[in-house]
UniProtKB/TrEMBL annotation:
Annotated transmembrane regions: none
CDD domains named among the record's database cross-references: cupin_PMI_typeII_C, GDP-M1P_Guanylyltransferase
Sorted UniProt keywords: GTP-binding, Isomerase, Nucleotide-binding, Nucleotidyltransferase, Transferase
InterPro entries: GMPP_N, Man1P_GuaTrfase/Man6P_Isoase, Man6P_isomerase-2_C, ManC/GMP-like_b-helix, Mannose-6P_isomerase_type2, NTP_transferase_dom, Nucleotide-diphossugar_trans, RmlC-like_jellyroll
Sequence ranges assigned to domain MannoseP isomerase/GMP-like beta-helix in this UniProt record: 306-354
Domain of life: Bacteria
Protein name: mannose-1-phosphate guanylyltransferase
EC number per UniProt: 2.7.7.13
Sequence similarity: Belongs to the mannose-6-phosphate isomerase type 2 family.
NCBIfam families: GMP_PMI
Length: 477
């Protein structure tokens, strides 16, 4: 494949945990999987930016192995052809993930360009994004490591900055990079804004795969060696590519900026005014949200009276405010957060404290996602628990049994196919089935609509570890 016809390979990096958006975003279900600003999730929006565009090849997603089924389900109806989902056994920051993506792209096409994108950013103008990529492509084809710098709208202190240098002769919309600057203090940020030479670092990169790997060999050889070994010893796991854990663990945990860009003399930057935010705080969501006359942004069942410049969101209960200013109020089914907007960058301190206390709410959502769908515990007491279960069309729970509990299923929507020991039968809406302690059973959704049921568990122990899986199409232990 020639340089002129090589596709740009879009790569989504989906390893973040988004603790500054807790309790909406949690380690088990971080912000990229949430519809924070639209009907689609941030992951879906990122995938859609390159979908059905002639210049792009098939999507690669590098992700936490624990999130594999969520990603596959969210992209199932959006990304065509089926994306390649690469599973990291644990997080090692962005440099190893980028190295893995570059190795896979180069193996398919030595002249490939990779477009590295975080899966949790908001870019509300896809055409402006594509125009920026097109502007950076000539420099990338010519061997430069291309970054995209956002024209600052204000003297923000929460972003890294790129100082642009001279215009490149071979690419008139692209500049050399004079320096990278960490998040500045307020006076410094104001000087940057006034100078006009500094751009916000968007964390989006257009890289010639082979050249990027050469730069890694020079500046971060341990990262490249670990990535090569992890890919070479990878294994197929259903539709996923699982990196070798022992090899991947040898990589330093380092960002792509520190590993390569801040050391390379071969970087270039494309200035762009596309509407962009990394959604790194509730203030960022307030900035891009639709505001009422008093400057409030509200989502869900909320009522705001005599309140100004607040971000108020409910994922369940009614939330009302009266006579407050500049607050973030977020309510989920298990957590209520109240914090001044000026302190929203410190929310991660709450998460760290709760984790140290062993509070499950620090990392887990009430809604528990599984490869077949999800469930939520709605009530529990002495020797009983009630769950609401949703099984996706075609979803199939493992063939299993329990040593300590019996279960009663009541179908409220859709049709269930139930295996109970030697029986196999359908259960329709408003019908129920009893599963005695110790019986071998399985639940499936043979229909085209989600199957919803109420499960009542009773017994001496109701923990999730009282599941003996005998057969599982998702290859879980």
């Amino acid at each position: 494949m020639s340089r002129e016809t090589s596709k740009i390979i879009p790569v989504l990096l989906s390893g973040g945990t988004g603790t500054r958006l807790w309790p909406l975003s949690r380690e088990a279900y971080p912000k990229q999987f949430l519809p924070l600003v639209d009907h689609e999730t941030l992951l879906q929006q990122a995938a859609l930016r390159t979908l059905d565009r002639a210049q792009f090849g098939s999507l690669i997603v590098v992700a936490n192995a624990d999130h594999r089924f969520v990603i596959a389900e969210q992209l199932r109806t959006f990304a065509r052809p089926t994306p390649r989902i690469v599973l990291e056994p644990f997080g090692r920051n962005t440099a190893p993930a980028a190295a893995v993506a570059a190795l896979l792209a180069e193996a398919d096409d030595p002249d490939a360009l990779i477009l590295l994108m975080p899966a949790d950013h908001v870019i509300s103008d896809a055409e402006a994004f594509l125009a920026a990529v097109a502007a950076g492509e000539p420099a990338a084809r010519n061997g430069s490591l291309v970054l995209f710098g956002i024209q600052p709208a204000n003297a923000a202190t929460g972003y890294g900055y790129i100082q642009k240098g001279d215009v490149l002769e071979s690419a008139p919309s692209t500049y050399s990079v004079r320096q990278f600057v960490e998040k500045p203090d307020q006076p410094t940020a104001e000087r940057y804004l006034e100078s006009g030479d500094f751009l916000w670092n968007s964390g989006i990169f257009l890289l010639p795969a082979r050249r990027f790997l050469d730069e890694l060999q020079i500046h971060a050889p341990a990262v490249l060696a670990a990535a090569r070994a992890a890919v070479a010893n990878s294994s197929r796991d259903m539709d996923f590519l699982r990196l070798d854990g022992d090899a991947f663990s040898a990589s330093p945990s380092i960002s792509i900026d520190y590993a390569v860009f801040e050391k390379s003399a071969n970087c270039a930057v494309v200035p762009t005014s596309m509407p962009w935010t990394d959604v790194g705080s509730y203030s960022a969501l307030w900035d891009i949200g639709e505001k009422d006359a008093a400057g409030n942004v509200g989502h869900g069942d909320v009522f705001l009276q005599d309140s100004r410049n607040c971000y108020v969101r409910s994922e369940g209960p009614l939330v009302a405010t009266l006579g407050v200013d500049d607050l973030v109020v977020v309510a989920t089914s298990d957590v209520v957060l109240v914090v001044p907007k000026s302190r929203d960058q410190d929310i991660k301190q709450i998460v760290e404290h709760l984790k140290a206390k062993g509070k499950s709410a620090a990392t887990q959502t009430v809604l528990v996602h599984r490869p077949w769908g999800f469930y939520q515990s709605v009530h529990s007491g002495d020797r009983f628990q009630v769950k609401q279960i949703t099984v996706n069309p075609g979803g199939k729970l493992s063939l299993q049994k329990h040593h300590h509990r019996a279960e009663h299923w009541v179908v409220v929507h859709g049709t269930a196919q139930v295996t109970r020991d030697d029986e196999k039968f359908l259960v329709y809406e408003n019908q129920s089935v009893f599963l005695p302690l110790g019986c071998v059973h399985r639940l499936e959704n043979p229909g085209l609509v989600p199957l919803k049921l109420i499960e009542v568990q009773s017994g001496s122990y109701l923990g999730e570890d009282d599941i003996v899986r005998l057969e599982d199409i998702y290859a879980r232990a």
